[in-house]
Write a structure and sequence with these properties.
Layout lengths: L1 H9 L3 E6 L2 E9 L1 H45 L1
Antiparallel strand pairs: 1-2
Length: 77
């Protein structure tokens, strides 16, 4: 986990800040670049979901999400 955070810091997506409630802890906070990346990702996901719904319909989209979640949960076990 620390390596991933280090990489995100190096890329400018997050910064580490001291936790005001715990002197030993650090908070990981999104930078403007990080917030912009999250917004772009959400926009991309929304576009993909719209396309899937156009192709499969609402019902098919829900079923696809259910099946993909089932696969994801099976691989996490």
């Amino acid at each position: 986990m620390a390596e991933l955070v280090d990489e995100l810091v190096d890329m400018g997506y997050v910064v580490r800040r001291p936790d005001p409630n715990d002197g030993k802890a650090k908070l990981i906070v999104l930078t403007k670049r990080g917030r912009d990346a999250v917004a772009a990702g959400r926009q991309t996901i929304e576009g993909i979901e719209e396309q899937v719904t156009q192709i499969l319909g609402e019902r098919g989209h829900r079923e696809l999400r259910r099946l993909l979640s089932k696969l994801l949960n099976a691989t996490d076990a």
